[in-house]
Fold this sequence. Notes:
It is built from three helices and 24 strands. It has helices at 96-104, 115-127, 280-284, and strands at 2-6, 16-20, 24-28, 34-41, 59-60, 63-64, 67-71, 76-78, 81-83, 110-112, 152-158, 168-174, 200-209, 212-215, 235-237, 243-244, 259-260, 263-266, 271-272, 300-303, 308-314, 324-332, 341-342, 345-347.
Amino acid sequence: MADIKLTTKDQMFEGLNLSLPPNNEIILDDKGLPSVMVKIPKFSMSDVGLSGGTHPAFIVDGEEKPYIYISKYQNIVVNDRAYSLPYKQPRNYVTFDQARAYCENKGEGWHLMTNAEWAAIALWCKKHDCMPYGNNNYEYGDYYHTYDKGAPMPYREYYDPEDPDGGYNEYTLTATGSGPKDWFHNNDFSGIADLNGNVNEWVGGVRLNNGEIQIIANNDAAQAIDQSASSTLWKAIAQNGSLVAPGTAGVLKYGAGSIVGADGSPFKNLTTAGGVTIPALAKALALFPADESSTYRDDYFYAETSGERLCFRGGYCRGNDSSGVFCAHLYYSRSFSGDYLGFRSAFVEL
């Protein structure tokens, strides 16, 4: 592995030394500042046990991409821009639209990691029997592997920020990428870190609207396009896998009459009401189990069936066994933020 030294005027990056494996790359934003990214080669649906052609994470604006680049680390924010750097405290207290802006501020091709990208990685992990562990069991590392720990970065949440003497809760995040090998998506230090636990992560390109599953086609959300509440790019998923106008009869929903079990039970327990067909697309986007395998562990799935609900995934430092790469919360509004919620950027060449 080559040693790379990065020096910039910004103290955050000054004197940063990185030793990178072959599938890791330094990608500069339009200000010339670096992020460490993991290069993921294109694969097909059949490569992760599903029927169909190229996985949608590798299709942007009708064009197949040979690679997508995912932040190796949960992101920090410097000057309103997202960065993937090791041994930092990940940014938390961020809304969906803020997370998108921090990513898109970096220039063309930069975007909030999409649900399509997240799902592709999760399915790859499952297929290759390397479901990552992580910081999900506060003070004890991983729920299943309590001997696994990263470098602690305690922070305090004051009951009243203007009254530090009035008391606080103290929580422990871990420094980005500081965990053992099995905290990386491929169970090797060359992989993507912390997809399980530490902080939940907003993902783009998917939402619920009154329980109806709506997505932006393929990985088109990797572009700086409209993901607002009123965007006309949101489409519902028909049971034959086609994308149709929101509100079309018979489309996939969470709740009675369609997909049931999304009220805080393990993802693997999602099932359907009688007569409902789940297309490969919904499975490819990790919105429904691809099979009945126990390798999903107990990663939890939550859905709120009223109003607009955006998605975050992965679990957090106090999530215990409910955390993991198939954990999802389609539960909160786009304006929600919290101590356990962060994000990561991704990149495609447009």
